[in-house]
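DinB-like domain-containing protein
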Amino acid sequence: MNSTDTREVWLRGPLPDMPTLLQPVAHALLQAREELNALMADFPAELLYEKPSGLASPGFHLQHLTGVLDRLFTYARGEMLTDEQLKALKAEGHPTETTLGVPELVGLFNAQVDKALAQLRTTDEQTLTAVRGVGRAQIPSTVLGLLFHSAEHTMRHLGQLLVTVRVLTRTPLS
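Tokens:
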């Protein structure tokens, strides 16, 4: 895959060492990462937790994008969330004195995408229909359902982040 290729990731061909049935999930996560990095490259730190018209702040979206990937991939492995993951979930969108800045939040998202891709590469396609419980209530899903939803949810929040950033920076949508 050529990093200077301007086509959407899914049009660049199969990813090496990625299970065939999980290519769309990987493509969506890589596309989200490229778009998020470009969008946030020059974003002003002072606007990170602004909520124009009551919309979720860019800071929330950056934290949530990272956290939801971590949580959904945890469930896909058949594991329950840790206390640390639950604490991070409660902290999403709430700035504190130790709140990370834009580069750090983008870096955490990039690292989480890398972890997700590594997990996808080692996911046995024979397990994709295996039932997995979600949350304390153990709502039934499947490995594939969780992985697909991680990609869909990531793209949904990226779209919301895009609009919020454009409103805050008064940059027209292209």
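Residues 20-169 form a domain with the Four Helix Bundle (Hemerythrin (Met), subunit A) fold (CATH 1.20.120.450).
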